Structures are given as C-alpha cells and as structure tokens.
Amino acid sequence: MLLIRRGRPPSEGLWSIPGGRVEPGESDAEAVAREVLEETGLTVTAGRLAGTVDRPGPGGLVYEIRDYLAEVSGGTLSAGDDAAEARWFSDEELRRLPLAPGLLEALTGWAVIAPRSGSSATT
Fold first, then answer.
1. How far apart are CA 83 and CA 96, in angstroms?
2. Which of 21, 59, 79, 81 is the most exposed place for a label (fewest CB within 10 A)?
3. What is the pLDDT of residues 87-105, one digit of tens each?
C-alpha cells in the first residue's frame, strides 16, 4: 500500500493515505489523481470507493473523507507537497507504523487489508 508520512498538521509525522481537498468543480476521481501526483509523484487512475469516514477538524468542523483504490500508470515515487516521505508498504509493515488515527481500523473494516491472523475485522 502506498502511504505518505505527513509533513504538516493534521497528523504531522504520522503515516497516512495520500489525499486532500476536492477543489470546486473537481470530481473525486480528478482530486484523487491530482493529490496523489502532488504528494507522491505518481500518476494514478482512481478506482472504486474503498470507504468513507468522518474526522473532526479545527473549530468543530467535520471532514467527510472518501478513500478510493487507485492504479498507478506512471511517474516516479518521491515525496512532494505536504508529504515528508512516500513509500510502499506490505500489510504487515503498515501495521508497525505510527499511523494517522483510525487508519488501520478503517482499512481493515473496508477489507482493503486483511485483519491480523487470529483476529477479525468489524464494520
């Protein structure tokens, strides 16, 4: 799985999925492609919706976050924009990282990664 280590708040220093705001007039698929390119140097095509979560933001705001699966079609992996680092990880490596709050639970709940052996994911 492709992750970035966030270089700025929120979750500065923690690993997360590349992403950001959808700009006015932009589709989710266009935003996915733009944000992944800006943060990782990779060109992607957005696939199916993996899942949606709500996360608290500053001043009582609540952000609706929609995460999509994507297929890499080009580019060279390098951290950019607000990413301090960008890397590929296996499911097992991902589990040992300092992750953004709720990320591991979301990924297992959406069946994007398998639950740890001997445990089960809840949705």
1. 19
2. 59
3. 999 999 999 999 999 999 9
Neighbours of 32 (CB within 10 A): 24
Give domain 2-109's CATH architecture.
Alpha-Beta Complex (3.90)
Query: pTM for this one?
Result: 0.88
What are the structural domain ranges in the chain?
Answer: 2-109
Half-sphere exposure of residue 62: CA atoms within 13 angstroms, side-chain side: 4
The owner of tokens 């690993």 is: 15
Q: Is 71 part of the annotated catalytic residue set?
A: no
Read off the tokens for 40: 């990782």
| Candidates 85, 92, 93, 105; catalytic one | 85
State the average pLDDT for the chain. 92
**CA–CA dist 64, 7 (Å, integer):** 21
Q: How far is it, in rounded angstroms, from Cα 81 to Cα 21?
A: 13
> Is the link from the previous residue into 24 a cis peptide, with omega within 30 of 0?
no
